[in-house]
Structures are given as structure tokens and as C-alpha cells.
């Protein structure tokens, strides 16, 4: 296999430059005296293990006007990701072993990023009949979820958790009570009242989390709560972890950096599920991330076509596309503003999600996979939608000046971005 080297890398911010040696898809080590067939210039960037995202929507198969496997995985590579978990709300739903295998084979052929598909907890994500957890596990599914659908039947969720536990799989849930959410298009509160828009109360999330935690305790099965948005949700998870329940959870960049006041612009780029909530909720989410109550960051990358997102707030679909912006956004908004350290941000994107998914932790030491990202922490530029690899060009941060962009991404020892 060819040996390559990346020169001028820093192993810590502000550290001295080093050279990393690779052999094919594997790291050989640092500062070795070896002949190589190719050399890349790291330009003084910070070398990190490639990020892992436990929650992305790639819309493939079935919705190529929103995203394709190629465009979505190219966006992941540009964002510094080496592994992503795709949600099963495709057309048709990813609820069969053949569908899981097909996605894996197609992603492997593209060679841009490692894809571990999630499979639907119920057939068609209809919440009526459980999918076959054992066969989906054998096909290589990352987890089971009806994400995008709220699991209204508690008894079915119970049996789904038990089946997943027997198959060695995690169940992830979009915790939201549909009867409380009803037609809400934003957080229910002062801003929704001012705008005269139907609201989605925080209780829709917290009431469902409380129920699902009881089912988790009943079954002893691993439960993962997706995209927390409310302060009370953090309190419930914190208490559940103290009680020893096998529960994990995630938070998104948009819930950490935006609030419901963004909707005053009446722009559907801010319409997301669960909705952006108050500043108090945002602060509670950040505190929960810092104290370990929240396990990791997840992009919840949810691409839609411009025509769809340009509709009004009542008609436009929910979702924010952000896969390429997660690190520069949070580096700019959290690290540079003193709300988090660089080490914390890195952990929330690397070891945190891998622990949730049961994947081995990646480092940049000898013998490890050569999946890494080189961050240019000094680079500063506005978000230019024309430079984005995703097909979803409309977003909350277009034109925003951000700092700390991925300069180089390697997957299996090959440059896939930069």
C-alpha cells in the first residue's frame, strides 16, 4: 500500500508542527523517517479525528430534489465528518435489511464518508408493526428509530425496545406528544402569541420524554433521545442518568445558537422540529452539554429544496441544513465567546457520538484508521451558499462570518475534501 505524509500539522492548538505518516487507510505514526509516495501540506492546521454525526437526513432514496447520497456525503466530508448515521425517513422507508445493505454498498462505492444507516423501528415508520430488529442488526443498521414520527403507542415502543435490546441495537426517539404539538409551527410562547402563529409547547417534548424514560426503566433497554430543545428535558435526563437508566441524548447546533426570536423575521429557514425555544432553554441545553447530561452533538441535517423553504411558516417543511457548518458555527459562537473549550467541542463531535453508537473511539495514533480532519482555526469567511456541497442552499447562517473551517478531510487515507 502507498505511504503518504501530511506535513505541518499541529497536535494541539498553538503547538509545534509535526508530520503524520499513513499507509493506505491506516495511520503509521508521527514524525517517522520513511519514504513516501505523496505528501500533503497541512499548512499549520490542527489535526483531529474525523467527526461522527449520529443524526443526518440524506433523503436517499426517494427525494433527489432535496439531497442525494453523493451530495449529502460530500457535505459531510466538507464538514469534517468521517462517519454519519442516516435517518430512515426515505421513500420508501429504510425498514428492510436489503435497504440498509444497499445504502452501505452505495456509500462505500462513493468513498466520501462512512455511512451507517439507521433503520425504521416500525414498518413504513407508521407506528403499527415492528420491523425485524435482528435482521436489521445483521444488515449493519446503526440503530432503530422512527425519527420524524412520534411513537404514540407506548406499548409498541416497549416491545420495540425489548426487541432492539435482544438484537444489540439502540432505539432513538423523536420525543414529542403529537396531541400536544398539534399544528404548532414554532415554540409556544410570547413570540408565537405576538405573531399569531400556532405554537408547539415545551410540554409536548417533556411529557413524551417522561413517558419514554418510564418505558426505558421498564425494559432496561438503551434509549437515545434525539435533539433535545427544552430546559425541562435536560432536567428529566439528568435525573434519569442519576437513577442509572441506560439513556443518552443529543443536541443540535441550531438549538444551541438560535432562539424563537429568530422567527420574528417570518423566515421559514428557522422552522425546525422540535422548534427553537427561549434563551433560557438555550442556556440550559448548553449547561447540560457541558456537565455531561447531554452526550453529544448531532447536526440533524435536514435538507429541503429552496422552493419548499421559501414558502410561508405554515406551509414550509421543518428542517435546517447545516452539515458543513457545525464546527465553524460552534467554534465561532461557543469557543471564541468563552462558552465552551476547543477540547469540549472536539469531544462532543468525536468521542461523544461514538460512545452513544457503540463505536470504538478514534485517535490519531499508530494503527488507527486514517480518518481525520485538519482544522484551520484562523480561517474566517462568510457562509457562501454557492460553496456548500449540500443541495439545500437556504439556511439561517448564509452570509454570517464564521471562523475555523475544515481545510482538509481524509477518509480511509484519501483526501475527500480540501
What share of residues is helical? 25-40%
How many helical elements? 14
Number of domain modules: 1
**Termini separation (Å)?**
22 Å
Protein described:
Helix 4 packs across helix 7 (202-219) and helix 8 (231-242) runs parallel beside helix 10 (279-290). The protein has 14 helices and 18 strands. It is α/β, with parallel strands linked by helices. 31% of the residues lie in helices and 21% in strands. The protein has a 5-stranded parallel beta sheet. It has a 4-stranded mixed beta sheet with strand order 3-2-1-4, with no helix packed on it. The chain has a 4-stranded antiparallel beta sheet with strand order 5-16-17-18, covered by helices on one side. The two termini are 22 Å apart. Helix 1 links the parallel strand 6 (51-56) and strand 7. It has a single domain (50-363), classed as TIM Barrel (Alpha-Beta Barrel), CATH 3.20.20.
Briefly say what this structure is.
The protein has 418 residues and is of the alpha/beta class.
Descriptors for this entry?
418 residues, alpha/beta, TIM Barrel, 5-stranded parallel sheet, 4-stranded mixed sheet, 18 strands, globular
